[in-house]
């Protein structure tokens, strides 16, 4: 064994303690460190000829790279939809690396059973049926891709072909209908060989909505003359967290033949709150569902789940035919359900967080985040003449813009100024024909004091922009 590696092995408890102490200092300083770093990153170097050992590597990282990392795990990072890592989920994530389980199959470890238990808990939280089976994947993009891959196989079943064997060309043109699809849906269609151009936009409801007009969806399905299609419904849109009427959409299957995929990446967590659970009524009727866990469940990147009613078709798409891997049957191993063969035990951080805080703890996070989003929205609407809301705060996202001259340059300049201050981070968007900003609340740490700091930063830099 290389002497440096041997020395690290001998000193492993001491090295882990050093890493623990460094991590604790970084976590304890989250509230005070800049939320974003816009400075130029260090220039890339060459691979070291002689290793510095684990302790030396930690020292070099702390000096060279750590200062430039964002505070995305902290309470005022409101860009995209970014959760943090609860203490329990962080514990689970560290242990994931300690045990280093490859959750591809069930042989020789109980890790697969833990993933199945965690999936069962999540299925219960989201109000899905026993008919829905699932698997952990890396994020919403892969979850949507898996769901639409199963939908593609279902279309082949309807048309008497096996896409997984014969290829997408055997299927012919596919119609995918949606009101306000996330960009990852088009990406998934590209990956699957269906094609981005097969995504057919359906008009949304009037009155500043992003939810699909179900009557217009019915008309679009009717125009297909009985040909099966895929409908992508939304449980929480990116800009305004609008929800499609899932029950009404599902009811259309009495007249039309379509696969219902629901993108509930973060909006699915509305199910945890009695005040907002009505928004996801009908989710259990979906043929496939996407939920992203490193958003509102607040587990570390990367973690998401996918659920489907047609595991048999999922196996047709993803099974790995090799003698040493075994054949899918009964409860198929996860390597037969996802694009990956080798799989990190992503379920463990979720298991830890659900065990530690339960349904009620995670409900509190959801309801507090919603209350804080509304607090920010109300203050923007009432106290800053230079800003205006573009949509009501329906759940956990505040969508707003400049009251005067909301050009791309000026809106982006405000976002940059806020980020450069280190006080907060929000992301630009384009909604209702207007350049805008989004503040998305999904971090378990965020408090009223944090929200007020974000507001003051926005007000101050908006005033500077108007001078």
TrEMBL record:
Keyword Transferase included in the entry's annotation: yes
Residues annotated with N6-(pyridoxal phosphate)lysine modification: 295
Cross-referenced PANTHER family: GROUP II PYRIDOXAL-5-PHOSPHATE DECARBOXYLASE, MIP05841P
Cofactor requirements of the protein: pyridoxal 5'-phosphate
Pfam family, one: Pyridoxal_deC
Organism per entry: Streptomyces albiflavescens
Family assignment from sequence similarity: Belongs to the group II decarboxylase family.
Keywords for this protein: Aminotransferase, Decarboxylase, Lyase, Pyridoxal phosphate, Transferase
Protein's name in the database: Aspartate aminotransferase family protein
One of the GO BP terms on file: carboxylic acid metabolic process
UniProt-listed InterPro entries: Aromatic_deC (IPR010977), PyrdxlP-dep_de-COase (IPR002129), PyrdxlP-dep_Trfase (IPR015424), PyrdxlP-dep_Trfase_major (IPR015421), PyrdxlP-dep_Trfase_small (IPR015422), Pyridoxal-P_BS (IPR021115)
Entry's Gene Ontology molecular function annotations: aromatic-L-amino-acid decarboxylase activity; pyridoxal phosphate binding; transaminase activity
